[in-house]
Design a protein that fits this description.
heterodimer; A: mainly alpha; MetI-like fold; 13 helices; B: 2 domains; two-stranded antiparallel sheet; 1% strand; flat; disordered N terminus
């Protein structure tokens, strides 16, 4: 964009200034290296230690008692699936409708206020969402449950989906809306039949990112789903989850459980990264198509 | 997408019945989106209301001693709840995180927006995004089994032998109360937090830096500036308040981070000068004690009060940050902030 490198070589630039410029360039590259070093280390250890823990039992068996080697965390996979399924069912309609309100009807102060609230709710500490849902849902139901956990995740995913949906709907050109209206379609049908489908893959991307975020959350699930050593398929009962299992086993004095924790970490990380990377690739394509 | 909904249909001379139905459909749909949108606002109000309903009890019981008391004892009969150790630990770990993360994140934002071009820049940007996607519990697991041993054996003794001898800051880097470096400590927690908030600070930093007008950069270059001088004279002065805003967002995130911190901070109540001692944070104590506390008791109410304090502070920083970032953008362009697509994407992954 700006041929800055050429400028540096121009004869008027003194040695001292050139050295300072080089030092700056080296400095910002060093920042990149410092930020990415932990990423590399985390990947290396999770893959190294996690891959060794993976086998068929890991995905199909419940944990063995301490002292009995082997076993798996199948209850955690089933629990995470159940919690995420419910969380998606709750948060996607809420997030989409709020995003549609902000993008399609959102004018003036009221909408600005809603947008601001959605933005700061992105910073809700996840543990607070857990405590809040405990006080409302767990107390009312009288038990920890997958439903409570999915509502806690909904508290976190709703604002994420709202912001993302609004950004994506704003990329849809106004021409399309005007064309729909000019054909005599009602406004709401234009939104549902023209605008949302046009933004379809972008919205799908947003959902994937929100799911990736929700799936890795531990703190809110700890206070709402409680965890469970056995398979549970009742959404109204205490339920296990993969991040919860990693947390429990990482703090366990039993060494055999540490391997299961690393195994959980590699599967969780793989799922989250596949979602994030696919979302990134999709949104890249979407951007290219719109522009 | 004008503000008026119906006129086109009216002009088309559609039958009255259909016009009516269209109006009703529009009104219903718009009403529905509006109700859900206000639901989001109500969620915030409800959260604060619910937490406050129980959270006021410790304040009623202990008054301000709840915030400045150092004794936290949930054992029945000897119950006492003073939250100072958690407040102290939260402030210290978040401060360490900000001090370490902000310079790196600003450097990274400048690297990605001003210096690096082409595929290499793309790869760095993708990797920083991936860092944001790593779940907190995975950071914690790595912290417990990899970072903490490395800290105990190598990094902390090294810091104690070097920085620990410097006057003023030295006492922060001395052996812990048991005379060694073993165990979880606030420094390790701060380092993990720093790694975790670099992506979000970088994303907001890039958003801020990208609002500096091209004219300014070109003017600086036309005066014969090197790239460093262009950044120093044109980019940084205009981004200052936005960078403060980015740091505040990072601070808000660091304050509320739970699991990774709970796993490496040591979870001990003492308040010590040296950062190599164990500590405790507000989110960590909620995570550790919440399920054991009886629903009706003062213990639970005290934990809910801590949750209330936490969300109040976190959202305050988020709001301040947003205002600062917006103002910095408005100062430069005279208009509203540009769409934060990059940020929204990252928020999803963070």
């Amino acid at each position: 964009m700006i041929p800055a490198a050429g400028v540096v070589r121009s004869p008027g630039v003194s040695r001292a200034r050139r050295i300072r410029d080089r030092a700056f360039t080296a400095g910002v590259w060093a920042c990149g290296a410092i930020a990415l070093l932990p990423l590399m280390l985390i990947f290396a250890f999770v893959i190294g230690k996690g891959a060794a823990a993976l086998n068929l039992d890991f995905f199909t068996k419940e944990p063995n008692p301490p002292g009995v080697p082997g076993g798996g965390i199948v209850q955690a996979f089933i629990g995470t699936g159940m919690i995420m399924g419910l969380a998606i069912a709750f948060s996607v309609p809420l997030g989409l409708l709020t995003g549609i309100y902000l993008a399609e009807y959102g004018r003036g102060r009221t909408a600005g206020f809603v947008r601001f609230i959605a933005e700061i709710l992105l910073s809700t500490p996840s543990i607070v969402a857990g405590a809040f849902v405990w006080a409302v849902v767990v107390v009312a139901m009288g038990t920890f449950s997958a439903i409570a956990a999915s509502i806690a995740l909904t508290v976190l995913m709703w604002p994420i989906l709202t912001r993302a949906t609004e950004e994506i709907l704003r990329l849809v050109p106004d021409d399309l809306r005007e064309a729909g209206l000019a054909l005599g379609l009602a406004r709401w049908r234009v939104i549902l039949r023209v605008v949302v489908p046009t933004a379809g893959s972008g919205i799908f991307t947003a959902i994937m990112l929100a799911v990736a975020r929700g799936m890795g959350e531990t703190a809110p699930i700890l206070l709402t789903a409680l965890g469970n050593d056995f398979v549970n398929t009742n959404p109204g009962a205490p339920t296990d989850a993969v991040p919860l299992r990693i947390y429990f086993y990482a703090g366990s004095p039993v060494v055999q459980f540490h391997a299961l924790a690393w195994g959980g970490a590699i599967t969780l990380l793989a799922a989250v990264l596949v979602l994030s990377i696919t979302a990134r690739v999709l949104s890249h394509r979407q951007l290219k198509r719109v522009h | 997408m004008g503000a008026s909904d119906a006129p086109i249909v009216e002009k088309a001379g559609a039958p009255a019945r259909r016009r009516g139905r269209t109006r009703v459909g529009d009104a219903v749909f718009k009403g529905m989106t509006r109700i859900v949108a206000f639901g989001l606002v109500m969620l915030l109000v409800l959260m604060i209301g619910v937490l406050a309903a129980d959270g006021v009890r410790p304040f009623r019981e202990f008054g301000w001693r709840f915030l400045i008391g150092r004794n936290w004892n949930p054992v029945a009969g000897r119950q006492s709840f003073g939250a100072l150790p958690f407040i102290y630990g939260t402030v210290v770990t978040s401060t360490i995180a900000i001090v370490l993360a902000v310079p790196v994140a600003v450097g990274l934002a400048l690297l990605l927006n001003e210096v690096a071009r082409g595929w290499l820049a793309n790869i760095v940007a993708v990797l920083v995004d991936l860092l944001a996607a790593i779940p907190s519990v995975v950071f914690g697991l790595w912290g417990v089994f990899v970072l903490q041993p490395a800290m105990d054996r190598t990094i902390e003794p090294f810091l104690a032998n070097t920085v620990g001898k410097v006057p003023l800051v030295g006492p922060l880097f001395r052996a812990n109360v048991s005379g060694g470096f073993q165990g979880g400590d606030v420094f390790t927690a701060g380092v993990i937090l720093a790694v975790m908030i670099v992506p979000i600070v970088t994303a907001v930093g890039r958003e801020v830096v990208s609002t500096v007008p091209r004219d300014l950069r070109e003017a600086a270059l036309a005066l014969g500036s090197t790239r460093f001088e262009m950044v120093r004279m044109a980019v940084l002065p205009y981004s200052r308040s936005g960078i403060v805003g980015a740091s505040m967002l990072g601070l808000g995130r660091a304050l509320g981070e739970t699991i990774a911190v709970a796993m490496v901070v040591g979870n001990s109540l003492g308040i010590h000068v040296s950062l190599f001692n164990g500590g405790y944070t507000i989110p960590a104590v909620i995570a550790n004690e919440f399920r054991e506390a009886s629903s009706e008791g003062l213990h639970k109410a005290s934990l809910l009060a801590l949750a209330l304090i936490l969300i109040a502070i976190a959202l305050m920083f988020a709001a301040l940050s947003r205002l600062l970032v917006r103002r910095s953008a408005a100062l430069v362009s005279g208009g509203p902030a540009p769409p934060a697509t990059e940020l929204a994407r990252l928020e999803g992954a963070a």
